[in-house]
Amino acid sequence: MEIHTLHEFMLHTKNITYLLMGATLVGFVCYWLFLTGRDKKIRKY
Amino acid sequence: MHDANTKSGLFTPGNIITGIILAVGAVITFIRFTQGIGAVTNLSDNNPWGIWIGFDLLCGVALAAGGYVTSASCYLFGMKRYHSAVRPAITTAFLGYFFVVVALHYDLGHPLRLPYPLVYSQGTTSLLFEVGLCVATYLSVLFVEWSPAALEWLGLRKIRNVVVKLTIMLTIFGVVLSTLHQSSLGALFLIAPGKLHPLWYSSFLPVFFFISSMVAGLSMVIFEGTLAHAGLHHKMDETHLKEAEGVIFGFGKAASFVLAGYFFIKTMDIAMDNDWTYLGTGYGAWFLVEMFGFVALPSFLYALGVREKNVTLVRIASINAVLGIVLNRFNVSLIAFNWNLPAADRYFPHWMEIGVSVFIVTLIITVYRFIATRMPVLYEHPDYKDAH
Amino acid sequence: MNRRRFLTLLGTAGVSTAMSAVGAKKAVAAGNQSFKGYKDSYGVLHDTTRCIGCRKCEQGCNEVNKLPAPKVKFDDLTVLEKSRRTDSNNWTVVNKYNVAGLDHPVFRKQQCNHCLEPACASACFVKAFTKNPDGSVTYDGSLCVGCRYCMVACPFNVPAFQYDEPFDPLIQKCTMCHPRIQEGKLPGCVEACPKEALTFGKREDLVRIAHDRIRSNPGRYQDHVYGEHEMGGTAWMYLAGVPFEAVGQQEMGTKSAPEYTAGALGSVPMVVGIWPVLLTGAYAISKRKEKVAAEEREEAVQAALAKARDDAAKALDTALAKAAKEKDAAVTREVKKAMEQAEQAFEEKFAALRAEGQSAENGDDGEGKEDA
């Protein structure tokens, strides 16, 4: 499929971007847990 | 505690007015959904959006910003002394968004197709898609954020503890989603440069909407606090009452400074677009009224109130600021929109449109009262005191 | 280990989906790419200098699209006295403009301009609008949610809404007779025009024709083809003998609708990517501050405790020392007392002995010994 209009181009790129955004939010959580996985538990004072 | 409510019975003046509004609202609702949008509105082909969008959606979402502002300052920026303000703010935000979605059903031609953009046909090039996606997601986030109040009330300790563990993540999601949809509401008008007056049109509309949503959030927390103190004082615990003053001054100070920043960026935008000459016109005068009477003035009143430690003054400033947000949203979506159409083609709301908006606001207040008199919102549940 | 595997999987899945999605549409990048629209798409050139305001085009439109019969018949030209716009029953309207300094009125037809980059399509959040390869912009009512954002977005105020339809209100607008074009027929209005004020053809040809007319008859035309570049270009274009503002066509930028929203849309993923980082940072900083404060508090408590312990020990020592001292003093006192008593007793004894010795005449030694 060839892209003819800017509108089509935006539709195509935003479709992918929105999927990536969802993955990003989930990815952040996972990565943060990985990043802090070996930290000592913060004591609750 | 409970006696105060039951003693006076159901037929208090407040309840009677509420009852009348709800009855009228029900009638208009019936007409709207049996006769069509045209039967109850002054909307036209030139003015497709009226106060159901300008007030119910734009103002509703902006004024519900207290949720993300308060939870972010408490949980993310470590201002623990605002903790007692979080639950009421989350509760109003949740109700605000919920009823924004309810109100939207009146405005949509095909209300039952509301989930279409999310699940059926995604028009991702639309800013409205962005708004829809974020509002839907944020409504869910707010529901989860708010749910501990209901779960404590229902005594579901286990689920409640799981939800409380998610607080930080939900707060961050909440701020991200709020940033996006608050700004996207402004960005909705980017596509219509020819219709919105140049003083209000700016490529920075999304930034303006986002920054002013912070002001709206901060001011609404103060304003709602005022209302809640008047009506639900007996429901507040010692912590809430003790922290209330700190919240008022802290939020007032923040709102004052954010308003100052907002004033400056709005001014600089006039310079960047070279719109100075428009200031001499009628719309220019109206723009100056907004800028000085509803941006600069509340900022200054807040500052005075905070300096003088004057609670009343801060409360007055908060009302001024809230009206300023409403005015700004009206200007962008209605008053300065279609500014070059002849007067005969301009829009003025039908009384039934206003009726629906009043109906929705009344519903929010009624449900808030229901929640606040039953669930641990304005006080901490005795069984969960140390838990958060 | 599990987490790592999960992350790897996540990464691979993400990249492969993205790659296959990108690959499907030939590498196109926005940076240096411009989009020319569909080649050989159609359009209509409306020469307002030829239009006589007969409303035949309105009638033709009404008939081929099977729109409801009009309240006022199409041959009644009095409706031209009032400015009209397109609405749900009239997909095209002709307006009359009385231009200062001109002895005759100017007529201009209005309908959907079928933008090359339609604002309505860009604004629609359910993709109900489509820019077709034949140049037309069509609407699929089965998707429409009825939000009317397309009406807000349209710079030409074209889409209309069925406000009085309670259960299935839809957007109504000119389709450029897309179904007829597919059949090889002319749009209804073009076919109905008796004065050749409307010319249907390939858009590229129409642009050429328009400029040819201006060139060959410069006195008759403004040197401007309205729609050639307006809002990124439209399929319907206009020629006029008077400035376009005089026939109700506002000056419009050449930027297309998606260009106005591209910036805002583009910042959305940036917010999603950066906000969580900044906010988690803010959280971590405040948490860290809290931790440090707690540790400092702890240290302060420890220090205070140590000091207290120290002080207590010192006090004990002092007390002990004092007690010891007191004890010593008491002992001394007792000893002294005892000694005094002993001395006294001794002296008494001595005196007694002396007295006895004196009586026995043997006393000097004892007294001398005692003095030393």
Class per helix and strand makeup of chain C: mainly alpha
Count the beta strands of chain C: 9
Helix content of chain A: 55-70%
Mean residue pLDDT of chain C: 86
Q: State the separation between the terminal residues of chain C, measured CA to CA.
A: 99 Å
Biggest β-sheet description of chain C? 3 strands, mixed
The number of distinct structural domains of chain A comes to: 1
Q: Low-confidence parts of chain C, pLDDT < 50 over ≥5 residues?
A: 14-25, 362-372
Main pleated-sheet profile of chain A: none
Low-confidence stretches of chain A: none
Mean pLDDT of chain A: 86
User: Can you tell me the overall shape of chain A?
Assistant: rod-shaped
Transmembrane segments (chain A): 16-35
Protein name (chain A): Hmc operon protein 4
Keywords (chain A): Membrane, Transmembrane, Transmembrane helix
InterPro entries (chain A): sulf_resp_HmcD (IPR054911)
List the helices and strands and how they pair.
The complex is a heterotrimer of chains A (45), B (388) and C (372).
Chain A: H1 6-35
Chain B: H1 3-7, H2 13-35, H3 37-40, H4 51-63, H5 66-76, H6 83-107, H7 116-119, H8 127-154, H9 157-165, H10 167-187, H11 205-232, H12 238-273, H13 282-307, H14 311-335, H15 351-374
Chain C: H1 2-23, E1 42-47, H2 56-64, E2 93-97, E3 106-110, H3 119-123, E4 129-131, E5 137-139, H4 149-153, E6 160-161, E7 171-172, H5 178-182, H6 188-192, E8 198-202, H7 203-216, E9 236-239, H8 257-360, H9 364-371
